[in-house]
Design goal:
Order of helices and strands: HHEHEEHEHEHEEHEHEHEHHHHH
Structural class: alpha+beta
Number of helices: 14
Largest sheet: 6 strands, mixed, barrel
Number of strands: 10
Distance between the termini: 34 Å
Strand content: 15-25%
Radius of gyration: 34 Å
Low-confidence stretches: none
Length: about 425
């Protein structure tokens, strides 16, 4: 039931103590503001990390080699490990039922690509058809490398969008020929990549053609795999970790590398990285919640202290009310009503201001690991409940004290 007199009392108290009420509300508003901003930053970090993983397949396992760092079976450290095509073919044959996509890669870092009078230095890579999905590339024109291209040593190329812009400008690149190491390759596709220009500065060739053109024999630079989807994220991580270990052990055995030499053959597992990052994100999220709630608690303590002062100032009034028959619950309700009102109004101002700031400024924030910080509706509702609970807690103890005042003692108060 709406009690007009109680609301008049609340507003009268606020009018008499404007500065005190303002400072009290400011502490609560600051707490909610800080909490929401911190949660927004946490969400932005999660978005940023997610965007980083979107650049490649979400369960990509990537292999590269280095030099040995330990003596093993009479072989000195410092040997450079060179993977062979047999390493790739054997791994695929042994794990055919586990693999979703797979490709070996032969890479030329600074390949010179010419088209008429235009020329540029780009990364030229020999790959298999699955590499499109491993790199999460999308075709903007034409097609990707296919099995027929590789089987027949076809001289075809798929170029990145940046290569197309640099060499062809506004000309349609499909069907045109580019010169790579003195050999003409027909452009059959143009691709884009979520990572942007860095990844779009590539030219893909069929693996067989690349090895033949660059006299690579059966050498490969990298291996890339992705496993078939699992029933759960934890199961996917476990299977991916097991596959990575088996692959590392196999390659070390093939190339006579010490089992504990972790630098000679490197296996990068994006699922393991994702699990570590998301675990870290959850820890940061809990930390932000803790900091925000502690800030709110500080504001609540301030509100509680102010309500104690109000109870002290209104001791005689409370005594009169009780002498006239007011029940303890009505006294508690009066104090709680005022406390919740002040806390809720201040908190809503802090909430609205923080959400507005994230709405207008958030989309402008775009760093490597923070992207579009936002707070969803569920979190906003949660902060509303926090406001109500905070207001109730702030007023409960002063209200309980007021309810326990004996009328005779209150009437003697000066």
């Amino acid at each position: 039931m709406f009690d007009l007199e109680r609301w008049e009392e609340i507003f009268e108290t606020i009018r008499k103590n404007k500065l005190r009420t303002f400072l009290t509300g400011l502490s609560v508003a600051s707490g909610i503001f800080i909490l929401v901003i911190l949660l927004g930053i946490g969400e932005g970090m999660k978005n940023g990390i997610s965007r980083e993983f979107e650049q490649d397949a979400s369960n990509l396992i990537f292999v590269w080699t280095n030099i040995t760092t330990k003596e093993y079976k009479g072989l000195n450290p410092g040997r450079r490990i060179q993977m062979k095509q047999e390493d790739y073919l054997t791994t695929v044959a042994k794990n055919k039922d586990k693999l979703e996509y797979n490709s070996s890669i032969y890479r030329i870092w600074n390949g010179i690509v010419n088209y008429k009078k235009e020329s540029g230095s780009y990364r030229v890579e020999g790959v298999y058809p699955d590499y499109q999905f491993l790199e999460n590339s999308s075709l903007s024109a034409g097609r990707f490398i296919n099995k027929t291209d590789d089987d027949n040593y076809e001289k075809v190329a798929v170029i990145g969008q940046k290569v197309k812009n640099d060499l062809f400008k506004d000309i349609d690149a499909l069907g045109e020929y580019v010169d790579i190491s003195g050999i003409k390759f027909k452009v059959v596709g143009v691709f884009t990549d979520p990572a942007g220009e860095r990844e779009e500065s590539r030219v893909y060739l069929p693996m067989s053609s690349a090895q033949k053109v660059f006299n690579a024999q059966n050498h490969v630079s990298n291996l890339a795999f992705s496993l078939k989807p699992a029933e759960s994220f934890e199961q996917a991580v476990a299977e991916s970790t097991q596959f990575s270990k088996e692959l590392s052990d196999f390659l070390k055995e093939q190339h006579t590398v010490a089992p504990d030499d972790d630098r000679a053959i490197r296996v990068n597992n994006t699922l393991e990285n994702a699990k570590r990052f998301y675990t870290l994100m959850n820890m940061i999220k809990y930390f932000f919640w803790g900091v925000g709630i502690c800030t709110i608690i500080a504001g609540v303590v301030g509100v509680s202290n102010i309500m104690l002062i109000i109870v002290k100032e209104r001791t005689k009034e409370i005594g009169i009310r009780k002498a006239l028959g007011a029940e303890p619950l009505s006294i508690i309700g009066m104090i709680l009503h005022e406390s919740i009102f002040v806390t809720a109004i201040a908190g809503f101002f802090g909430l609205i201001f923080s959400l507005a700031l994230l709405e207008f400024v958030g989309p402008l924030i775009e760093t490597q690991y923070i992207y579009n910080p936002t707070v969803n509706f569920q979190v906003a509702i949660t902060t509303v409940f926090i406001l109500i609970i905070a207001g109730a807690l702030a007023g409960f103890f002063p209200a309980w004290r007021a309810a326990r005042i004996k009328p005779i003692v209150a009437l003697r108060d000066e």
